[in-house]
Specification:
single chain, 354 residues, alpha/beta, FAD/NAD(P)-binding domain, seven-stranded mixed β-sheet, FAD-bd, TetX_monooxygenase, EC 1.14.13.-
Length: 354
């Protein structure tokens, strides 16, 4: 494989580039954002030992990851929506590092720092992809490669060339917001959150609060809504959650960062394609599914497995033969899990937004 292009500088694409470079292969990453700091990178991720952490070991970055990870973030707390009483509290044992938390931005920074300088071409938006592995950029320029890897997320341009399948609205919407310097400025809410994730559910709605680093708590109001509904306003949310305990409503009333409307989109299950030697997909471009704690892990595993297959000569076909059945099985489970996320019958568990 002489020349490889990765479209998208997310976790999966960067992990793939890292392992390719460890094996001495030529790779270029094209990212439409103008710089690594162009936007916030999202909340906290739980890295599973058998997927995300395994990928980081393959990338030679596991020890650096451990230095940044928060094992205490594995705590999962369920709170009664009407009383704010803790009804379940899963606290990790000392030494438990099966799925420690790390901020997405920290993990992305770790991967970026591991690459040869200049690997990522910032501000290079891909407008079109042809099956012959030609990239056409937004500025009209073109480049040809032996392989183009679509690591470009939910609305992937590479997937459009390979399968033409577009994501569908799941019926569930998240509204994201946050609390800064929570232990000092919002001590009661920080105490209720604990060291990991807190969830309260009632009547097909949920409220999540998650510890991030540097005293930040990232929150998600989650509920069924029509695709075109706009719910990211404080008054609307307080009305929607009327009757919940005042302490829980404090997350909505006292947030510091505004509200961001995030309808959840998913790819149909199964999503697969006819093998095309010059194009392939990884991460959300291949298997966009509800954010139930597995997406980032699978993206990292996809990226390192693809790079290893290319480096060892087994190739794209072997990578897809392993990745596609795994992603189809996981996506089916996540589709069911999305409804558990909002069910009062599942008060706790690992359905935290990731």
């Amino acid at each position: 494989m002489n020349s490889i292009a990765i479209v998208g500088a997310g976790l999966g694409g960067l992990a793939c580039a890292r392992v390719l470079q460890l094996h001495g292969l030529d790779v270029t990453v094209f990212e439409q954002e103008p710089s690594p700091d162009a936007r916030p990178q999202g909340g906290t991720l739980d890295m599973h030992a058998d997927t995300g952490q395994a990928a980081l070991r393959t990338a030679g970055l596991h020890e650096q990851f451990r230095a940044l990870a928060r094992p205490e973030g594995q705590q999962m707390r369920a709170v009664d929506a009407l009383t704010a009483e803790v009804v379940d509290d899963e606290i990790p044992e000392d030494g438990d590092e099966f799925r420690p938390e790390i901020d997405r931005g920290q993990l992305r920074g770790l991967l970026l720092g591991s690459l040869v300088p200049g690997t990522v071409h910032w501000g290079r938006s891909v407008a079109d992809v042809t099956p012959g592995a030609r990239l056409t950029f937004a500025d009209g320029g073109t480049e040809d490669f032996d392989l183009v890897v679509g690591a470009d997320g939910a609305w992937s341009r590479v997937r459009r060339a390979l399968t033409g399948v577009r994501p569908e609205y799941s019926g569930v919407t998240f509204v994201e917001f946050g609390l800064d310097d929570a232990d000092r400025r919002h001590p009661a809410l920080a105490a209720l959150t604990g060291q990991g994730t807190m969830v309260a559910k009632r009547g097909g709605q949920a409220l999540f609060a998650q510890r991030n680093s540097n005293g930040h708590i990232r929150c998600y109001a989650t509920f069924y809504a029509t695709e075109d509904a706009r719910n990211a306003e404080r008054e609307n949310l307080l009305e929607r959650y009327a009757g919940w305990h005042p302490e829980l409503l404090g997350f909505l009333a006292d947030n510091d960062s505004g509200f961001t409307h995030r309808p959840l989109y998913v790819l149909p299950v199964p999503h697969a394609w006819t093998h095309t030697p010059s194009l392939t997909l990884l991460g959300d471009a291949a298997h966009l599914m509800p954010p139930l704690g597995v997406g980032a892990n699978l993206a990292l595993l996809d990226g390192t497995e693809l790079a290893t297959a290319l480096a060892t000569g087994t190739g794209v076909r072997a990578y897809e033969a392993g990745m596609l059945p795994r992603s189809i099985e996981t996506a089916a489970a996540c589709a069911e899990g999305l409804h558990h996320l909002l069910s009062d019958d599942h008060p706790a568990g690992r359905e935290a937004a990731a």
